[in-house]
Design brief:
- It is a single chain.
- By secondary structure, this protein is an alpha/beta fold.
- The chain is about 45% helix and about 20% strand.
- The chain has 7 helices and 9 strands, in the order E-H-E-E-E-H-E-E-H-E-H-E-H-H-E-H.
- It has helices at about 25-35, 65-75, 95-100, 115-120, 135-145, 150-170, 185-200, and strands at about 15-20, 40-45, 45-50, 60-65, 80-85, 90-95, 105-110, 125-130, 175-180.
- A hairpin with a 2-residue loop joins strand 5 and strand 6.
- Residues about 1-10 have low confidence and may be disordered.
- Bound molecules: adenosine-5'-diphosphate (ADP) and guanosine-5'-monophosphate (5GP).
- Adenosine-5'-diphosphate binds near residues 21, 23, 24, 146 and 180.
- Adenosine-5'-diphosphate (ADP) binds near residues 25, 27, 28 and 146.
Length: about 200
Amino acid sequence: MSSSASESHSGGRGKLIVISGPSGAGKTSICDALLERMPDTQWSVSVTTRPMRPGDVSGRSYEFVDQEEFDRREAAGELLESATYVGHRYGTPRGAVEQALAAGTNVIMEIDVQGGVQVAGKVPESIRVFVLPPDREALAARLEGRNTEVAAQLARRLAAADGEIALARDSGCYGHFVTNDDLETTIEQVRSIIQREKAPS
Ligand code: ADP
Ligand code: 5GP
């Protein structure tokens, strides 16, 4: 994931872009591509208590901390939002996001739906996109194909999906729902949503 605060040209504040969706829907694939195609945009590195898994890069995918450190940061008010997802804590460090937005750099964050609801309350002008899988079978196949979760984790993630989708819809916090069927089409759909929302009305 790249960061490029020095390349901001927008003049005003940056836009906060929230990408949510069930595990395996394709959020990380979409965010990685968006960061390559949108040079004035930086990735928000979350903090988590979940163990590292294959493909994770410490300090880039996440900052991996223990429960005590997570609790300390939360109590100190260092997190913009936080949630528990299938037994692990996740949160967004507030400082990096605020600095980037103030410098006119857009920030993209991949957070779960509970976090998305919190951000909608705190940063109502953020752009919030929920990524849906084409169907449950595709979601299961993608998560299995990624081969990063032990069986119990995989089952918990799939079991969580229906509730996450229901909360995303019922909360009214997501302005955009995008079905990730063909990845390239989805990336461009999300990019055009962002461009539209960024354009002055
Ligand atoms: P998430 O971040 O939502 O958990 P990932 O981006 O890790 O999801 O995608 C899960 C798996 O599905 C990865 O192996 C990824 O390469 C694959 N994938 C993502 N989008 C698509 C798509 N549109 N079609 C097929 N496979 C996809
Ligand atoms: P994963 O363990 O697959 O990387 O992420 C699991 C879930 O946690 C995904 O829905 C992901 O979007 C979410 N997540 C990652 N970082 C954060 C964060 O900082 N805050 C919240 N609320 N969710 C996060």
